[in-house]
Amino acid sequence: MKKSTLAVERCKTISTIQRMLGGKWKIEILYYIAFRDIHRFGALRRQLGEITESSLTKQLRELEADGFITRHDYREVPPRVEYNLTGLGKSFIFVLEYMKQWGDENLGE
Question: Which residue of 12, 19, 28, 36 pairs with 32 in a disulfide if CB–CB is 3.0 to 4.6 A?
């Protein structure tokens, strides 16, 4: 008897979200922008600690390309760049809140 091979249908929505937010730092970056009022590149880098400048730049560019944040370059010396949530990013806040609540309840400290 031949073994039947059934293709497992992937959830396109979840796959897309995972692609958009799958970077090592992206959810944490969104959290700090949304809840800790951290909007500047240097402050984000200090908050994240272990992230390299190039990795933070890459993650921010991807979040911007996917529509979660906007970048505003003030063209000052010294350079000042700030990141803010877009409407899409703001609509994700409740997901971040739920993730934090779930983690606090289920993962402990």
Answer: 36
Enter the pTM of the model: 0.85
Task: Check residue 108 and give its pLDDT.
Answer: 75
Spatial neighbors of 53 by CB under 8 A, at least 6 apart, are 45
Q: Which residues have a Cβ under 8 Å from the Cβ of 66 and sit 6 or more positions away?
A: 20
Tokens standing for 39? 């909007």
Radius of gyration of the chain, Cα coordinates, nearest whole angstrom: 18
The DSSP bridge partners found for residue 83 are 71
pLDDT of residue 5: 66
Q: What is the pLDDT of residue 6?
A: 66
- The DSSP H or E segment spanning 87 is helix 87-91
Residue type, 21: L
Nearest 10 degrees: CA dihedral of 40, 46, 52, 56?
-30
